[in-house]
Amino acid sequence: MKKISIFLLFAAAFASCKKDNKTPQYDLSGTWTLSSLSTNGNVSTAADYPCIANDKLVFGAGNSATVSWNNSGTCWVNSQHTSSFSATDGQALTFTRQGNNLTLPPASSAASAGHGTVITVNGKLQLTIKDTVILNTPNATGTYYNSNTYVKQ
């Protein structure tokens, strides 16, 4: 009986030990493809609008990346045809990183810095970048809350 009591005491003490549940820092290097974008809650996905996947984010060595898009025609990204990509262009950028959280420079003087989080979803790495843009132009006025989700290829 004494042996069973000692065993149960040892088992209870062992079970109460905490394990470190640390998420690994994911490898960013390589090409990521835009899978969805959202502006003020209006979501468009590459499944519905395949041209969205022409937007690529490529992470190089260190803290450098390039975002590029290649749309030879107009790529409508919503059923109302009020938002589109219609160019081939790109931008080099430098980001900072803390674990799986990124901070990217503002896309324009009207934008806030982008904040991204890398997670794994169904075995694939996914990066969601959020920013806010405040516009006061003849074509657009207002505050736009953006969220872009990229999937590592």
Annotation keywords:
153 residues, mainly beta, Lipocalin, ten-stranded antiparallel β-sheet, two-stranded antiparallel sheet, 1 helix
List the SSEs and their pairings.
Elements: H1 2-15, E1 30-39, E2 42-45, E3 56-59, E4 64-70, E5 75-76, E6 84-85, E7 88-94, E8 96-98, E9 101-104, E10 114-121, E11 124-136, E12 141-152
Antiparallel strand pairs: 1-2, 1-3, 1-12, 3-4, 4-7, 5-6, 8-9, 9-10, 10-11, 11-12
How would you characterize this protein structure?
With 153 residues, the protein is mainly beta. It has one domain (24-152): Lipocalin, CATH 2.40.128. The chain contains one helix and twelve strands, in the order αββββββββββββ. It has one helix at 2-15, and strands at residues 30-39, 42-45, 56-59, 64-70, 75-76, 84-85, 88-94, 96-98, 101-104, 114-121, 124-136, 141-152. A hairpin with a 2-residue loop joins strand 10 and strand 11 (124-136). 15% of the residues are buried. Mean pLDDT is 83; it is low at 5-14.
Which structural class fits the helix and strand makeup?
mainly beta
Based on DSSP secondary structure assignment, what is the total number of beta strands?
12
- Overall tally of structural domains: 1
What is the approximate shape?
globular
Helix content: under 10%
Q: What is the distance, rounded to the nearest whole angstrom, between the alpha carbons of the first and last residues? A: 59 Å
- Mean pLDDT reading: 83
The succession of helices and strands, N to C, reads HEEEEEEEEEEEE
User: Approximately what portion of the residues adopt beta-strand conformation?
Assistant: over 45%
CATH fold call: Lipocalin
